[in-house]
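Why does this matter for the project? Reviewers at the last site visit asked to see concrete outputs rather than summary tables. In response, this paragraph embeds two records directly. Each consists of the residue sequence and, immediately after it, the corresponding structure tokens. Nothing has been edited or filtered.
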Amino acid sequence: MERLTLLELNLSVQKAMRDGLPGRFWVTGEISECRLNRNGHCYIELVQKDSDSEKLVAKAQAIIFSFTYRMLRPFFETASGTVLQPGIKVLLNVNVEFHELYGFSLQVHDIDPAYTAGDLAMKKAEIIRRLEKEGVLEMNKQVAEPPVFQRIAVISSETAAGYGDFMDHLVNNEYGFVFYCKLFPALVQGDGAPQSIISALEKIFCRSHHFDAVALIRGGGAQSDLNCFNNYELGLHIAQFPLPVITGIGHERDDTVADCVAFSKQKTPTAVADFFVRHMKTFSDGLDERSGQLTSFALNTINREQKLLSGFVNRCVIVGMRGLSSAERRLDAGQKQMVLSARNILNQSGKKLFLASKRANTSLSFRMQYAADRILTVQSTVKKLVLSVIHSGNVKLDNFAKIIRLHDPRIILKKGYSITRHNAAIVRSADMLNSGDVLETELFNGKINSKLLK
């Protein structure tokens, strides 16, 4: 058997591969590692995984030389919306190389961004389908909307221009509404962004009773920076968050997973600020409308009660006057009846005295004395009867006077009511008045003159 050195063997393999695999090939694979050295060359490790077990079934090293990389990178990032990074699938145009010192590798000449973009879209669609299957996709959209969004937890980078624009737009809104914002700093791009945002959400969750909503915002940037928002774990946390989450991540063409599960998706941070201001304006307009309704109801109630009070006062005066007249008539009748009774008694007594004097043949002096005593007794009885009737009449008169005083308008005025007059006539309805009329309002301790404006 012929003996070969390692170099000879590697050179033989090199020749065999060049002869057996001439030209270029389009190869698909997933990037597991990607690094750029100081010379500008991009080194990639490509892998292929089993579709069921996710185990590695193939692996190869690839290189994009600096000259080619400088042309391919902007073209790929613009067309695909992402950067060359671990975890994405790519379709590469390569030729096979075998170096006697460095071994097997693939030299990249071109890359198809449409393949990667399609794969990313498939991954996003798969995440959305998974969230929908788990029954959480619409959960945040169904969170109870508070009457007003005023206490806002903000997730953003503290130094991001989008955060500054958001705060400026919110604080300096044209209506002068006041908002209370608390920043929870987080990364909003790069591989560490999903976990950073999740950590911020967990901090907000511990203080959720202090806030009405969460604003997840970022400024402008490359479309590739949005891939962190197409993360399953981040989407799951947003979907199940107990407060409404409003996103404004600066992208207008496509919705990310975070946008799909959020309570509301806005285009930019300033659009999120406008969303909160509009919501506050709607709430404020509703308050103004209810205030007007309440004022109208109060005025109508006051007018109605004033009419009822005026009618009640008039009825009290009429009833009092009628009662007083009736009492006076009864008193007059009583007095006349007492006079007649007294006269009848005196007449009867006189007759009895006359008869007695005629029958008195003896003891005239005694009988006359007896008759005189009888007359005095009768006079005393009559006097007492007359005084009793007069006293009873006076008591009744006093009672009626008290009733009349209780219905005296001045007593009613003392209780806090008032009487409004126009041209000396009592105002019983708002329909009696016109704008510009001079009114006189009588209170318990004085009068007030006023002019009706409306």
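We now turn to the second protein, recorded in exactly the same manner.
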Amino acid sequence: AGRYRVSQEVRQMVVFAPHNVTMDPPFTRLDILTCRNLLIYLGPGLQKKLVPLFHYSLKPGGILFLGNAESIGGFGELFSPCDAKARIYRREPLVTKPLDVESPILIPAQTANTNASLTLTMPNANLQTLADQLLLQKFAPAAVLTNAEGDVIFINGRTGKYLEPPAGKANWNIHAMAREGLREELIFALPKALRTAETVVIHDLKVGGNDETHTIDLTVHPVREPALLQGMAMIIFTDVAAAKPKHRTAKQTTDARVLELEQALLKASEEAQSFREEMQTWHEELKSTNEELQSTNEELQSTNEELTTSKEETQSLNEELQMVNAELQSKVDELSATSSDMKNLMDSTDIATVFLDNALQVRRFTSQATHIFKLIPGDVGRPLSDIAHDLDYPGFQDDAQEVLRTLVFSEKEIAGRKGRWFLVRIMPYRTLENVIDGVVITFIDISEAKHLEAELRAVRAGNPEN
């Protein structure tokens, strides 16, 4: 429901075929050409080649329909806008000179009068150009330029008596287009001419088409120059006037038939020889390809062995890394346990401790030290002399430097604020390698002992007899 299907009658009027506008021969005599959202994916150079090709494909007054983001560029003389916003253009006739269309195949479909009218409008036409065009139109034989596979590259003259496009999908291969009697000869003549680099000529060839038979001479000429056309072949069709039938006796008829059979046998022998040579060439190519594949296979095997060795080495290295990682993890766990033990030990002693490096900068401190020095975690790396404290100890910095210099520990009783007293002990910091790497300062609260000592002195002062 809500869907529609195109009727069979309309579908039979439409030809569906994949078409590469940059490689395939263009369609001609089109009323409308729709090419939407294709040019935007092509480069500027290719766009400049396709717009004249669209002009070549359309009938006079034909319609070109482009996408919203596309335009005809600098080819305003070829198309006039019907609806510029909708990108609809009308084909305009040429008024100056014939259009130079770059295409994989160019078929001169114009009549002699059309060519003449276009030629006369050329401002720079000279006598030689006009003569060359006249010779090509009137006297040059029909010819086709193909590549080694038989794909048609260029067509000159009228070739309808010799070639016919096959029904169905467009196929511009000469083997598919050749008429009856020509196809078999081309199968052997084209490869032979390209293989031997010599012109192959087949005389008195009977070619059927349009309910009649033509006698032609087929010439396959390998192209050597220019270099751009090397590896291609020019196939020329030359009409031959049919001989008038003569009255023959029975013996002459028999002799003619025998001669015809001998020629057919000779031709078949030549074709068989050509086929054997081609088979031998293919066999050599296959043999060479097989050797290359074997060499490639050996290289791949060598590469596979190297990869296997690399894999084993990687596995071994991975195992070593896992062992090292396990050892490091064990060390980290041990260090973490030691650090935890050290923290718990220092917290349990209730002794304020500060660790300084060789520059007397804070390396670590216990929580009890924050009651004496105004320390925060961000003070690590700062000189201890920059930190405010509650001690009456002006020679603290000098004593620390002296301990670093003499490696002899220092111990002094220092008064603090609010009547507090501390036993300050400064000792060198030794690493496990017995290297001096700073100092350790401990602060033991002896306020209670000092108070008892003061009370004892007072008691003794009140009882001199004791």
